[in-house]
Amino acid sequence: MWGLGITTVVMAIALVTDVKSRKIPNWLSMSGIAAGCIVSAIAEGASGFGRSFGGLAAGFAIMLALYACRVVGAGDVKLFAAIGALSGAAFVVSVTVYAIVYAGVIGIVLLLLRRQFVRRVIAAGLAAIGLLAFRDVAGFRLYVRSDLLTFPFMLAAVPAFATAAWQWLQPTFA
User: Fold this and answer.
1) How far is CA 145 from CA 71, 124, 127, in A?
2) Radius of gyration from C-alpha coordinates of the chain
3) CA 67 – CA 53 distance, rounded (Å)
4) Taking CA 127 as the corner, what is the angle to CA 98 and CA 60, rounded to the nearest 5 degrees?
5) Using an 8 Å Cβ cutoff, are 95 and 164 in contact?
């Protein structure tokens, strides 16, 4: 429960800084990682530290894969490592899945508002066909680099965190 409280504060600060400057400060992520590992170790001993480190690794690994695809920034990778350290692997995986869904919805809404949806779908389809059928990596890279639609990932991560936290706090009936 303490992990969700600290994570809420970290997410609020990250939202403000990401929307304002499109950056998530290292001090915030590193403080979250340290708090998660230290408080878990104090509260639960070695098993708590192991849970915290496992969450850190899960959040970092998943977001590093998205970073390699240029979907998120490096600050998001470190922040999700902090979320994992504070709240555990299962929770950070839930937040990540919800964030990807919310980011997709936000992206579609922005494309519709800019009237670019059909053009983007056709371009993505042609790039995927070129990549899969003809192994045309150059065409795919051109699509990825051309006029990307970007927005602060925290706009998807915060509602994802809220959804995961709400779900996590629901009583389960066996």
Assistant:
1) 11, 12, 12
2) 18
3) 20
4) 35
5) yes
**The whole model's pTM is what?**
0.78
**Which two tokens mark 6?**
């600290």
C-alpha 46/C-alpha 53 separation (Å) is 10
Binned at pLDDT 50, 70 and 90, residue 174 comes out as: low
Residues in CB range of 17: below 8 A, 6 or more apart: 23, 24, 25, 28
Higher pLDDT, residue 69 or 128: 69
- The SS3 assignment for 134 reads helix
d(CA 10, CA 32): 7
| Rounded distance between C-alpha atoms, residue 91 and residue 1, angstroms | 12
